[in-house]
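Dear colleague,

Thank you for sharing your sequence with our group. We've completed the structure prediction you requested, and as agreed, I am returning the results in plain text so they can be pasted directly into your records. Please verify that the sequence below matches your submission; if there's any discrepancy, let me know and we will rerun it promptly.
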Amino acid sequence: MKKTVIVTDSTADIPADLVKKYDIRIVPLRVMFGHDSYLDGIEITPGDFYKRLVASSQMPTTSQPSPADFAAAYEAVLKESPGCSILSIHLSSGMSGTYQSALLATSMLEEETDITVWDSKSASYGFGLFVVHAAKLAEEGASVEEIVSAVEELRSQRKLYFLVDTLEYLQKGGRIGKASAILGTLLNIKPILSIDQEGIIYAVEKVRGRKKATSRIIELFQKELPGITNIHVGVGHTADPASVEEFLEQLSTVFTVKEVVLSEIGAVIGTHVGPGTIAAYIWPA
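Please find the predicted structure tokens below.
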């Protein structure tokens, strides 16, 4: 039976225990504070990143891996497991050139290889959960075609929403105007955001106050999954697991939660959303 190895990038924000358990290979993006450059999740932890982000007057920037970075990662996998298949799952092409870099890397390899690059059309653990599901199936001996079909099915079932605690970072990153950010902060506005089928972030609603916003997210989940009571849950937080406890309690009064994965939103995604963000991903159990 041909072995399949799963590769992804650091923006999948997969908990370290799951990365290790399913032998998932990760190619890191970079985050830069001025001249200081760090490999996401390797040279800077989410906790250290958010401390520096809050203290810094300078907005960090991010950069995707180069095609050469991906080619080196693929070559390392192929050296370790000759003749294997590689399924490489990445951050939405609507948000980053990471997917394109991975695609270009496949043409740089001298030998003929079996590498499939898949655009998740999502971000953070919104696609990290696809990677974990793919790795579980790979471990069970599923083919690349079977795995891709299964993660496409999961993508159609998974629902996601996230809210940012402050509009400051969206404004600094050029996502919204300064006047909107100031007004939103004064009014305690918490925008509920999601990601569309093309992998682009869009605003769903604006709600005053965090508790009302999380309650509204749960209402939206109920509307999107009519008749579904048993769910799996992934919750992303900015190195502050206590911040999502109340949300999980609210969620468990409406759904029967079969499994919860807590995911730290890493430095690259965190650059754009800022501290205090909550991201919620649910799918039928």
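Summary note from our side: DSSP finds eleven helices and 13 strands in the chain.

Kind regards,
the structure core
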